[in-house]
Amino acid sequence: MSASESGNIESVLHETRVFPPPAEFTPRVSFKTEEEYEQAWQHAKDNPAEFWGELAQENLTWFEPFTSTMSGEMPETKWFEGGKINASYQCLDRHIEAGHGNKAAIIWEGEPGDTRVLRYQDLHREVCRFANVLKRMGIEAGDRITIYMPMVPELAIAMLACARIGATHSIIFGGFSADAVADRNNDAEAKLVITADAGWRRGKEVPLKIAVDESLERSPTVEKVIVYQRTGADVTMVPDRDYWWHELMENESADCPAASLDSEHPLFILYTSGSTGKPKGVMHTTAGYMLGAQMTTKWVFDLSPEDTYWCTADIGWITGHSYIVYGPLANGATTMMYEGAPNWPDEGRFWELVEKYRVTLFYTAPTAIRAFMKWGDQFPQKADLSSLRLLGTVGEPINPKAWMWYHTVIGGERCPIVDTWWQTETGGIMISPLPGITPTKPGSCTKPLPGVVPAIVDESGQEVGDNQGGLLVMTQPWPHMLRTLYGDHERFVDTYFSKIDGCYFAGDGARKDEDGYYWVMGRVDDVLNVSGHRLSTMEVESALVSHEQVTEAAVVGFPHELKGEGICCFVTAKDGGSEELKKELTQHVRKQIGAIATPDQIRFAAALPKTRSGKIMRRLLRDIAAGRESAGDTTTLEDFTVLAKLRETED
Ligand code: WT7
Predict the structure, then answer these.
(1) Which of 32, 219, 399, 401 could cross-link 185 (Cys pair, CB 3.0–4.6 Å)?
(2) Residues 468, 511: contact at Cβ < 8 Å?
(3) Cis peptide before 75, with omega less than 30 degrees from 0?
């Protein structure tokens, strides 16, 4: 268990407060009572095929009905086979056919303050036109497309256009570097890249096209690039390779029937960090993912057509895929998108947006909540937040102090908080309170949703008792789980299904209390959670050792007040190291991976502490990074003096 986790566990272990569902909150669309939930959960556990089969029939629009709900053992379970479906139809056409074409689908605000509202009709038209553009570019069902864009409506349009013709999108968060884009282009064998000139962040332009140009120097599979003009930044357009979005869209027809696709047709690939240096291309398929996104959005956020729902994530992460685009749109709701930073032009921006658009449901990350706390209550207090009726969090364990602040200052003590535990791999929320029903405990994601059957087990797969820490696993398959890692099915089986027999192992440690509430403690592998973003220590290490001055590097996490976990790099350098080299290495890591991997600390050491068998003693390094005296047994240390020297390197 890493350093920050133990810090977090400490505060959470003493947490005994229970908050009953607020009396003001009446669920509109989801479960109405605790008993109703318990019954549904038990039914889904005993009869998953019946439970999911009925939901799929009632909630998804099928071009051809499925013939089997689920078949095959985990991890090879297939869902809704025989069925034909289309995700963009599910998100758009059926709402228009039901007469809701005039309803706002996306309310967007750019960082400079420009705004757009796209009704379902508008979004449908743009998606169809862009789908025709893709076809004209030679894109066919099954082709992979990289999307590397700022938070503009065209990002959602591009995704849905891919889905409409059966192309598989692979979205890369704009904070990743050119090198990271190239790696992902190559792994997915992407044929086309969709990007923008740049995006806005804290008043500055974040260049994207320039990074794409650089990535294409070593992305042989990419044939063409479509560039959306967002900021007007200066870009170079390569003839016969680069095309302007607006030029391609001119005169393009808005008539594009949604392709009839198999339930298991790949909808998207999303790269995430594992415990090795190579990112994993998590693949989700159409029907199962859509059902999960749609149902969990409805259950957890109680999302109804009257709501204005705002998830502050970037669409480049799974949270944005499932809870900005696919989930809310499948429910015919109004989803908000904001392009820029929360502290631009000042720290009150989010709350101004809540007031301006009368946001009712608000979903963000603990790292953001901690930043809001630090900025001060005066910012939220300046705004009228009375429209809010529910708050959500995701991405990392929330410390009770941040939970209480969220509850009091943002929620006015009247909004239930849903602390949602899930992962890129799970496709949708797995463990979460149901609003207005589940009593909440600050720091606990409470209970599994219907259809989700977790357990806490030890290394041998035995279930452990109440309040005993262990590994969080899933004992049954669910429709929205990942199907494979793109191009590496063996790694998929090995990563998730080989540790605990017959179970999906998520990578997290957790405990379950006497009320059946889950308390997730954090990753038990070499994955860091930095501001709710996943990063592998090995990824950062390989970036460091690729620098000519570095002979060896070890990267560990340490508790960070705002980020949850910070990145600490122990480096042995050829020339011993200098302030100059620190700066250089920081830039080097940013270039290799992206700004999200910027090291918080770089410490030079003559050698790294190792066991006699040559393994780096990470536990010890974590203690040093956290400034703790090491309680662990160090008798296997190769060289005791290494430890003393490392302590001296403290910044
Ligand atoms: C990891 C997954 C799922 C969307 C955002 C991150 C941690 C996520 C919680 C939560 C405690 C959480 C876990 C998980 N995590 N939500 N509510 N409480 N931990 O997706 O990048 O795939 O990361 O985030 O450690 O394994 P991701």
Answers:
(1) 219
(2) yes
(3) yes
In sequence order, what DSSP letters do the residues of 181-198 get, joined into one string? HHHHHHHHT-SEEEEESE
**Is 321 near ligand 1, meaning CB less than 6 Å away?**
no
The dihedral of CA 291, 297, 300, 305: what is its sign?
negative
Among candidate residues 254, 73, 285, the one with its CA nearest the CA of residue 166 = 285
Count, in order, helices (H) and strands (E) of the chain.
Answer: 22, 30
Write the residue with the smallest CA distance to atom 17 of ligand 1.
421
Residue 415 has pLDDT above 80, yes or no: yes
Can you tell me the distance from the alpha carbon of 70 to that of 51, in angstroms, rounded to the nearest whole number?
11
Q: At 12, which amino acid appears?
A: V
According to the annotation, is 142 in a ligand binding site?
no
Determine if residue 343 is labeled as part of a ligand binding site: yes
- The CB of 396 under 6 Å from ligand 1? The reply is yes
Helix axes 3-13, 618-626, angle to 10 degrees: 70
pLDDT of residue 299: 98
Instruction: Give residue-wise pLDDT tens across range 367-408.
Output: 999 999 999 999 999 999 999 999 999 999 999 999 999 999
What is the DSSP code string of 88-112? Answer: HIIIIIHHHHTT-TTSEEEEEE-TT
- Predicted structure pTM score: 0.94
Q: How sure is the predictor about 7, in pLDDT bands with cuts at 50, 70 and 90?
A: very low
Helices (H), 312-437: 318-320, 327-330, 349-357, 366-375, 378-382, 400-405
Sign of the alpha-carbon dihedral angle for 282, 286, 292, 297: positive
Round the CA-based radius of gyration of the chain to a whole number and report it: 24
**Is residue 622 a known part of a binding site?**
no
Instruction: Say if residue 647 carries a ligand binding annotation.
Output: no
pLDDT at 344 over 90: yes
Report ipTM for this prediction. 0.99
At residue 440, φ and ψ (nearest 5 deg) are -110, 155
Q: Do domains 91-103+119-262 and 527-648 have the same CATH topology?
A: no
If you average pLDDT over residues 338-345, what whole number do you get?
97
Question: What are the residue boundaries of the structural domains of the chain, listed by start?
Answer: 91-103+119-262, 527-648
Sign of the alpha-carbon torsion through 231, 183, 172, 245: positive
Q: Which of 323, 422, 452, 524 maximizes ligand 1 atoms within 8 Å of its Cβ, making it the mutation to test the pocket?
A: 422
Q: May I ask the CATH architecture of the domain 527-648? A: 2-Layer Sandwich (3.30)
Query: Which of 311, 423, 530 for a ligand 1 pocket mutation test, highest count of atoms within 8 Å of Cβ?
Result: 423
Could you say which of 3.20.20.70, 3.40.50.720, 3.90.190.20, 3.40.50.980 is the CATH number of the domain covering 91-103+119-262? 3.40.50.980
